[in-house]
Amino acid sequence: WQVWAAYWIQAGHELPAFDELYGINASAIQARLRQKDALPAVRASLPDWLDELMARELGADWPAIRDSLNQPAAVFLRVNTLKTDRRSLKVRLAQEGFITETVTDIPTALRMAQRYNVFGLAAFKEGLFEVQDASSQRIAPFLQVEPGQKVVDACAGAGGKALHMAALMQNKGRVIALDIHEWKLKELRKRAARAGVDVIETRPIESAKTFKRLAGHADRLLLDVPCSGLGVLRRNPDAKWKLRPEEIARLIVQQQEILQSYSRMVKPGGKMVYATCSILPAENEKQVQAFLVAQNGRWTLEEELHIDPAKTGHDGFYAARLALQA
Asked: In the chain, N or C: fewer CB atoms in 10 Å?
């Protein structure tokens, strides 16, 4: 009845004299309703616990990031450089009536001037581009892959980054894409065929043997680990209401386990990128620091990448590139 009373008062009505409403303070409800618009977490439609957590972790940066995560997400395209270049694709799309804008600091990225379902376009069916956020497009180049290398994408999903790495490698070498979900790997195989990529090999993760067979074999390893997704809330706004503190705690344990065990696939002198679409330090730089301490000098941190959604207008991402001693 309290919920109904709040709804009734918010609609501008006086409470009727029902026995069930006895003791409900209409004035207090009205005051609370007036106050709610002044509460940042309410305006941002965030659970209180999550707003408080992010304020503690990010400090003065959180208000701007919180606001940015409530802005509509733009559609970005990644040019498939195996088949075309950015200028040619931009012209092709303009001829079909779709205006795009170049992203200055990401050479493969085009931003759609308006949201549009691009999956029916002939250019998409020809494999000239993939839909991929600008932040995500920064991860594959960050790994510094080269033609002819053996590269492992250990949490490949549907393979957006694996496809990007194959293009950067000029379709030369091997990209081994691993995932626990066979249906995602099936989708990756379809996307690879459309993109003209034939260096990707998909393997389902069935047991620890999957990794043991690759121990010490990878020139490059990408760990795009499961995470809270706090950097991409504008794309998945319902996720913030499904997320729980205990789920974040579980993910943090899982991420460190992945780092410690999957890193064994890298050969001496090789490199690894640990990446998340989270903005929470406990999932990002703190994980890398814990890994480095546990490894006792075997790995070194080369560079970190922090993508702030408030400063860039793109998804929030983190990546760290680490090198294994030769």
From this structure: C
pTM of the complete model: 0.87
Active-site residue among 277, 280, 307, 322?
277
Is there a contact between 46 and 69 (Cβ–Cβ < 8 Å)? no
3-state helix/strand/coil string of 129-181: EEECCCCHHHHHHHCCCCCCCEEEECCCCCCHHHHHHHHHCCCCCEEEEEECC
Q: Which residue blocks in the chain are alpha helix, DSSP H?
A: 2-10, 26-36, 40-43, 48-58, 62-68, 86-95, 122-125, 139-142, 160-168, 182-195, 209-212, 239-242, 245-262, 285-295, 309-312
Active site residue 227: no
Instruction: Please state, in angstroms and rounded to a whole number, the distance separating the CA atoms of residues 186 and 161.
Output: 15
What does the DSSP 8-state code read for residue 231?
Answer: G
Angle, CA of 102, 133 and 187, to the nearest 5° = 125
What domains appear along the chain, each with residue ranges and CATH number? 1-38 (no CATH), 76-131 (3.30.70.1170), 136-324 (3.40.50.150)
Between CA 7 and CA 4 the distance in angstroms is 5
Compute the distance between CA of residue 214 and CA of residue 270 in angstroms, rounded to an integer: 13
Rounded to 5 degrees, what are φ and ψ at 315?
Answer: -65, 150
- Which residue, chain included where needed, has tokens 């090198």? 323
Token pair for 242: 């499904």
